[in-house]
Amino acid sequence: MLKTFALFALTAVAEIVGCYLPYLWLRQGKSAWLLLPAALSLALFAWLLSLHPTAAGRVYAAYGGIYIGVALIWLWLVDGIRPTGWDLLGAGIAGLGMAIIMFAPRA
User: Structure pTM?
Assistant: First the structure.
């Protein structure tokens, strides 16, 4: 279970970095060279998603729950905005949904 969570968290960081770097270029006038590491990060994201041993649709659905939590950590650490109690409640509910999807008994 810890391995699955860690893999999802790493996957989320790769996706967020892959989207944040073009954001910096488009919205903050940073160098277009940021698009190269962004593309590499998004390729890493796709590869990491492929490492999960269950069906792709289930992986994508469960990944969303972890992505929400990682995005809120990014909000706090990178954007400097502390998540609200409502943010944390929503992330907790999404995390519970992820756990149900990934760890429910299967026939």
Answer: 0.85
CB 91 within 8 A of CB 64: no
Furthest-apart CA pair in the chain: how many Å?
52
One-letter amino acid at 13 equals V
How far is Cα 12 from Cα 16, in angstroms, rounded to an integer? 6
Tally of domains in the chain: 1
Q: Which of 46, 44, 26 is nearest to 35 (CA)?
A: 26
Query: Phi/psi at 31 (nearest 5 deg)?
Result: -65, 140
pLDDT in tens, 4-60: 888 889 999 999 999 999 999 999 999 999 999 999 999 999 999 888 877 788 888
Q: Are 26 and 83 in contact (CB under 8 A)?
A: no
